[in-house]
Fold this protein.
Amino acid sequence: MTVPRRNPAPLVGATVQYVIDTLTTRIVAQEYGVDERLPSERQMAQDLGVARNTVREALDQLEDRGMIRRRAGSGSFVTWNPDGVAVSVAPVADETGPLQLQVVRGILEPEMVRLSIISMPPRQIEALGHTLSQLEAVSTDVTAFLRLEEEFHRQIAEGTGNPLLIACYNLVIDARRQSFRAAMYRRHLTPARIATYQRGYNALFNAIAARDIEAASEFMKLSLIEDQKLLMQED
């Protein structure tokens, strides 16, 4: 998939974050296709129940992330392409090996989910649940599953409210897009394995919604172990 450039996320207000999360979810779900024009700022403000300047600030953030592009006098158009060639935008991601990636994930992800449970407001949990619903609807499409899995993790990272951790995890996401990992998952992500992962993500979401730090952290550790097993099968 095409990888949008993701700059370190600045601090934004809760309402702006809500608009960012909502529009990101819709774009990732392809409710708006590539090169499709988004509704006007006025329409989005009415739809989401926010002020136009809030929508404008959210669009600024989405443009910085490479998900949309504004055209003077025409509006905002989707540039995020889930079917494009995966291109890493961070050199460090290209230089990171699969085992090195696993080490960093082991350091970040359990703490990331703990912080998100402490900090994530109900609106973000609701958006996470929407992404889960889309992920659970996938049965055989590996590309769609990986895209939604990535979005699920990204929303957990953003739920921490920590811009430095979010920026670090954006690098992890870039590294997870390596061609090696994508090819590995295409070999191993059978419908049965997808169903197993879906059950796991459902349990993780329930733990987050229940503010159960222990259960959510345990899931993240078990998920890392499963990825480690896949890596060992590739050796």
Observations:
- The first helix runs from residue 14 to 28.
